[in-house]
TrEMBL record:
CDD domains: Peptidase_C1A_CathepsinB. Belongs to the peptidase C1 family. It comes from Daucus carota subsp. sativus. One of its GO terms (biological process) is proteolysis. InterPro entries: Papain-like_cys_pep_sf, Pept_cys_AS, Pept_his_AS, Peptidase_C1A, Peptidase_C1A_C, Propeptide_C1A. Residues 105-340 form the Peptidase C1A papain C-terminal domain. One of its GO terms (molecular function) is cysteine-type endopeptidase activity. The chain crosses the membrane at residues 12-31. This is Peptidase C1A papain C-terminal domain-containing protein. Keywords: Disulfide bond, Glycoprotein, Hydrolase, Membrane, Protease, Signal, Thiol protease, Transmembrane, Transmembrane helix.
């Protein structure tokens, strides 16, 4: 009897993309129907929800009207949540990292203080209106790991990953796959922020700042004539999923640095201000990716994860938030991905200006 042959991975990915193109809109309609009072063109922030959470003695966290979303509609907020389900064919080939060694882990850990020379760990960025969270959390985590591994402060380019990975990573500003970002780092590398910037550093005019801003085009050219695109590339040697056991996740962060995590966002998350978040009220909005940098336990004995978001410092606790640890709150412990930095093609000074000019004009 002939054995069944599985289709190539690229065919599986293409099938998934076609499936999404045909049915994702219908899925959004179904989700919207589950919350008939939540209109897509209404404001995401409502005083009644703030009062509901803050008057709940069991909530464990405080809500507020965050400046970041003052003028956002429900639709615009949902668009920020850019984590898409990994194509089924890709799931089979993702290695799972399990730490077998038994380390004596501290009860509290913060990567910012563990590696104080690595300034990138404490950066809070802003994805604008672009659904690029999957790219931000990946690039930020790899930047941190380069500093931890090689003692070099570096900011890698979200724009490179967002615009140049293409359909292998998903849909750019309309969402993508976190594990595919790490595979891109391994396969193609990622240039520095200096070479291909997402930010202008003086205001919100970077890609994604305006509603409806399209995914930037991949140019493969550094903005400055003194840096070569290929020589600005930084690679990872691996791309893997971290086993969901909390102690395993803690060991990964303790040994190798911050990781990228994904979780389901509900309406109430937009209001987070302080404390240890757990879902209290509101409809499901979508999937979001952030950077996990530590853990701890409150004075009341509640275990939490410490994470950096990319909604600027006007949101949450100066851009950070805590979420309940050990219960897979909103699925956060089952979607952890990372990779290790590579010494391949480490930053080199360009000595030949003519070569740089030729590369930029190609």
């Amino acid at each position: 009897m002939a054995k069944a042959v599985a289709p190539p991975l690229y065919l599986a990915s293409w099938s998934y993309l076609i499936f999404c193109a045909l049915f994702c809109f219908n899925l959004q309609v179904v989700l919207s129907k589950s919350a008939p009072l939540l209109k897509l063109d209404s404001n995401i922030l409502q005083e009644s929800i703030v009062e509901s959470i803050n008057n709940n003695s069991k909530a464990g966290w405080k809500a507020s009207i965050n400046d970041r979303f003052l003028n956002y509609t429900v639709s615009q907020f949902k668009h920020l949540l850019g984590v898409k389900p990994t194509p089924p064919g890709d799931l089979q080939s993702i290695p799972v990292k399990i730490h077998s060694e038994r380390l004596k882990l501290p009860s509290h850990f913060d990567a910012r203080t563990a590696w104080p020379k690595c300034s990138s760990i404490g950066n809070i960025l802003d994805q604008g209106h672009c659904g690029s969270c999957w790219a931000f959390a990946a690039v930020e985590s790899l930047s941190d790991r380069f500093c931890i591994q090689f003692d070099m402060n570096i900011s890698l380019s979200v724009n490179d990953l967002l615009s140049c990975c293409g359909i292998l990573c998903g849909f750019g500003c309309n969402g993508g796959y976190p594990i595919a970002a790490w595979r891109y780092f391994k396969r193609s590398g990622v240039v520095t922020e200096e070479c291909d910037p997402y930010f202008d550093q003086t205001g919100c005019s970077h890609p994604g700042c305006e509603p409806g801003y399209p995914t930037p085009k991949c140019k493969r050219q550094c903005v400055g004539g003194n840096v070569l695109w290929k020589k600005s590339k930084h690679f990872s040697v691996s791309a893997y999923k971290v086993h969901h056991d909390p102690s395993n996740i803690m060991t990964e962060v303790y040994k190798n640095g911050p990781v990228e995590v994904s979780f389901t966002v509900y309406e109430d998350f937009a209001y987070y201000k302080s404390g240890v978040y757990k879902h209290i009220t509101g409809a499901q909005m979508g999937g979001h990716a952030v950077k996990l940098i530590g853990w701890g336990t409150t004075d009341e004995g509640e275990d939490y994860w410490l994470l950096a978001n990319q909604w600027n410092r006007s949101w949450g606790d100066d851009g950070y938030f805590k979420i309940r640890r050990g219960t897979n709150e909103c699925g956060i412990e089952k979607s952890v991905v990372a990779g290790l930095p590579s010494s391949k093609n480490m930053v080199q000074e360009v000595s030949n200006v003519d070569d740089a000019f030729l590369d930029a004009s190609a």
